[in-house]
Design a protein that fits this description.
Length: 119
Amino acid sequence: MGIEITQWDVQEMIGTMPVKGNRQPFGLLHGGANAVLAEQLGSLGSAMHAHQFGSIAVGLELSCTHHRAAREGLVTGVARPIHLGRSTTTYEIVVTDEEGKRTCTARLTCILRPKPPGA
């Protein structure tokens, strides 16, 4: 996927992903690639939050709305928490193209579970 995390923080997780190599047959960024970027960013933020409770974060629900097509360059995802609780987290992830235009809005909810033995 070529995702690079550029900022690591529970309050704002940022990453980029190239369009090249992640296109669907019509030459547009694949919607599933947007979903992968969104889940990666939201899951990392959730995992960082869960760590303080000795828990792990597991994806529970992901929804993506694709607003416009990206055809080239990099897209950037910014994940910010909507809710950081002891049992769930919810992040909104906004994906933009190189011109700063919103291409996708995603929402990820993770459930926080006890760490499995040996993890």
